[in-house]
């Protein structure tokens, strides 16, 4: 596949095309000898391996690797493993790896949280409402207790969740009753967060589980331990320490509109909000501002990349300079003094690209060292001191800056629409509720909810498929909720502004958005914050009128440009919770018709959710809408009500409404 500039503007389905901004930066950098993902894709000697991309290459022992073709009976593994077994094993291992990324993130957050509760870090307990929510999940009493006493117990219980051997995990309590019964009946209720990852890796070892259904069953239990365990805990504890996000205005772009020509630019990239929070806290300190001015800068400018960017923008309004595929291109602007990274989705090529500029790449986690980068591990007991040292190193680079390629073209966004925020917007402080949302879904103004997650991909014009799906859903009155890089791309397309409803939304969705002043696409946070969607779906069920389980909801999820194993874990915990999930471009079991058919059809009989595969973004959106309409039909909310003209006798028969207890809802 060759990546090139698309002549004549955008296309709805541009394969192997970079946006104009990315191509400008890449072509300019290439003149200096810089190679980014665009050149690497173009120079790749071979296309992606058919066996590997379809899931039928097995290298789990030294008898192989064995490359298996399902249609040819004799091409099975040396050990006798069939295409179905190998595809299921590889799928399961990807789910385990993706889950482990979220879970390890959560462990780190839990450890820092407990130290914070004890007063041993630079952070504090900022959000008591979120603290009480987590305490209730762990069945910890809160009445008459000091917040730090509650927080210590929450931290201890959170840490214990990861190592427990017998379940269920605490997060399961937040799921609807019928969904919990489904998990119990099918045997996938998570027993302990780390246990499910370990057991899944054991089962996929050579000579163990060789029944594809059984392998997928454990993959489901592992994914549920991520979504309803690790990710749910990480998001909850982050909200307590750093405060739950609320709507805030900011801007996004590919570096050009959010980097400052006259300031020290520090980009923070990765997924750990601790790094973002620390840098945000110190970057405005007068002493550091003075140090920046001393070297000729007007001040310090922080911007984000990838999910660290998402964390920064929704908590502090820090603008986002790029998504996954654009991380190198942010450096090629020549305006970045330091790119500071922590964990996940970080390209090894960053230090190599930075050699051609004055940028210093700084790694901060022992989990993610990169050759050629400066390693400055952060001690969580003295986080702000380490953050100050990082900022000072960035300031030292400012006088080395050469040619800068920047433009003024950032896109405004409004972000921070968490579960709690939406409840408040819909009902106010005292009557916060999802009831207005349920009512508008029932009456058809909003047809349903479409969740868009995942990364951007060079397999398409990065962000094109995400935006195309979002626009098609919004046009057809499906409210969009997005996370991670998908949310950033919706922002670049102008979909994260209230004004977007007037331009892009169908009549019903536009009416609702204009009435309450929110965008037709809601920014829900980073990839670990997909757990917020689980909580939101639970609330839709609890409010009533839309069924008693996730599988009844007129809702569907998709990852049009998925890249990471984390996306597969997220997709599987949505499927295991009863939702449809559509992936684009590739699917890791495509070389096994049996396993793929099971994941796209048979698995629905067990958990109520299923997978679907569709590379065309318009068809993907319509597949999701067909599913939503099918659920509306099953709920009986698509039936048109006959208009009845009342005569006088019928009017007399109506009872006058009572006012007893008015204004005192319970």
Topology, element by element:
Elements: E1 4-5, E2 17-18, H1 20-30, H2 37-43, H3 50-54, E3 57-58, E4 66-67, H4 83-117, H5 128-137, H6 147-163, H7 177-186, H8 193-203, H9 212-242, E5 248-252, E6 264-269, H10 273-282, H11 286-294, E7 300-305, H12 306-316, E8 320-322, H13 327-331, E9 338-341, H14 350-354, E10 360-363, E11 374-375, H15 383-397, E12 411-415, H16 419-427, H17 435-442, E13 448-452, H18 464-475, E14 478-482, H19 484-492, H20 500-504, H21 507-516, E15 521-523, H22 531-543, E16 555-559, H23 565-575, E17 580-583, H24 593-602, H25 604-607, E18 610-613, H26 617-635, H27 648-653
CATH topology of the largest domain: Rossmann fold
Q: How large a portion of the residues is in β-strands, by DSSP E?
A: 5-15%
How many individual β-strands? 18
Oligomer designation: single chain
- Rounded mean pLDDT score: 90
How many separate domains? 4
Largest sheet: 6 strands, parallel
Rounded Rg = 25 Å
Shape: globular
Number of helices: 27
Describe this structure in words.
By secondary structure, the protein is of the alpha/beta class. The chain folds into four domains: 47 residues, no CATH class; 176 residues, Substrate Binding Domain Of Dnak, Chain:A, Domain 2 (Up-down Bundle), CATH 1.20.1270; 153 residues, Rossmann fold, CATH 3.40.50.2030; 220 residues, Rossmann fold (3-Layer(aba) Sandwich). The protein has 27 helices and 18 strands. Helix 9 crosses helix 23. The longest helix has 35 residues. The relative contact order is 0.12.
